[in-house]
Amino acid sequence: MRSRLPGGYRVGMQLPAPRGPLSGWLASRLQRYATAAPRVTSSADPWSDDDLQLALWVAYELQYRGFDDVDPALQWAPDVIAFRSRLEGPWTGRLEAACRVEPGSQPVAEQLRSLIEGADGPRLSPYLRRHATKEQFREFVLNRSVYQLKEADPHSFGIARLDGAAKAALVEIEADEYGGGRPDRMHSELFRTTMRWLGLDDSYGYYVPDVPAVTLAVSNVMSLFAIHRRWTGALLGHLAALEMTSTLPNRQYATGAIRLGASEEAARYFTEHVEADAVHEQIAAHDLCGNYVRRHPEAIGDVLFGARCALAADDRFAEHLLTSWTADQPDRARQLRRVKS
Predict the structure, then answer these.
(1) Same domain, 182 and 212
(2) Statement to judge: residues 86 and 144 lie in one domain
(3) Total domain count, the chain
């Protein structure tokens, strides 16, 4: 059983139940039961492959907070690292095929803006603003909690890999994400307040066993870029895309939450991002990515690739939720079985 901190939320996390041979082997290995690793084959659709995405998420989580029932020393076990690399092969290949773009001659900030303006994926925020029921809004927040409760942590891996103006820009963005030194203003803590309004458990990783592959994939994309120094440019582009597409959706999320009865405090996570990200998008595009590409002109393709991956992940996540809601699937309640009434 997880212990609770004075603030009320539990700490510590157990390994989630496997969803297939890949996540099953990794769970067994981390509990010191497994022998030979299974073969990793290319998935027809890695975004919706529950087994692959859960195995990747568990492997990456070893680099964050880990699990109560796993020896911390296994973070660097050679066979675990090798297995993670094999999982990443088909996943990275599919991302490259779908999201790699040819750089142009304009400044990287302009190219990022063009990518975003040219995106034409499903729009989740207008639905949540106008039409979502409280149960649907709860499902949205439940899924978002997998990343939001460690918001900024993946992108903070990039700080040690930068210097000069790009490093200062990343620190400026991340300092705001972590509340400027005030624990109660950390964005992860603001998100916990929203979760409590909706009757959700706000413990770190609590809903990982319940969310679909696409939700894990949203987190896995940024962890892939965070863990590997080779993907520093993609990590910065990913962050820039998040910041540059945040202001309007969060304004609509806030409106939807208030429509459904949220207090100003319960909606503060969203309203905070309306103001903060309007500033962050300029810092991310010009000061962060612009300065990084000036020092590393060969990395512009990776910056744009990371941004495109962020947009693709958001589109997949939105499509999944909107499809499940509009199809009126009777088994949708099963995905919410851990939600408190």
Answers:
(1) yes
(2) no
(3) 2
Are 201 and 288 part of one and the same domain?
A: yes
Per-residue pLDDT of 109-123, as tens digits, reads 999 999 999 887 778
Q: How confident is the model at residue 326 (pLDDT cuts 50, 70, 90)?
A: confident
27, 18 in Cβ contact below 8 A? Answer: yes
The alpha carbons of the chain give a radius of gyration, in whole angstroms, of 19
Same domain, yes or no: 169 and 316 = yes
Element (H, E) at 80: helix 78-99
Is 284 a member of any domain? yes
> What's the confidence (pLDDT) of residue 12?
75
268 closest CA partner among 179, 150, 156: 179
Give residue-wise pLDDT tens across range 218-237: 999 999 999 999 999 999 99
User: What average pLDDT does the structure give for the chain?
Assistant: 91
Q: Which phi and psi (to 5°) does residue 198 adopt?
A: -90, 5
C-alpha to C-alpha distance for 207 and 81, rounded to whole angstroms: 25
Residue 328: per-residue pLDDT: 57
Residues 207 and 297 in one domain: yes
Residue that finishes a domain, picked among 47, 63, 96: 96
Segment 43-56 shows an average pLDDT of 93
CB–CB of 306/241 below 8 Å?
A: yes
Per residue in 152-186, is it b (16+ CB within 10 Å) or e — as a string? bbbbbbbeeebeebbbebbeebbebbbbeeeeeeb
In a domain, 341, yes or no: no
- Structural domain boundaries enclosing 214: 103-336
Task: Say whether both 119 and 91 belong to one domain.
Answer: no
Distance CA(66)–CA(338), nearest Å, equals 22
The answer on 112 and 239 residing in a single domain is yes
Give the tens place of pLDDT for each residue, 50-68: 999 999 999 999 999 999 9
What phi and psi values does residue 6 have, to the nearest 5 degrees?
-55, -30
- Taking the model in full, what pTM does it have? 0.91
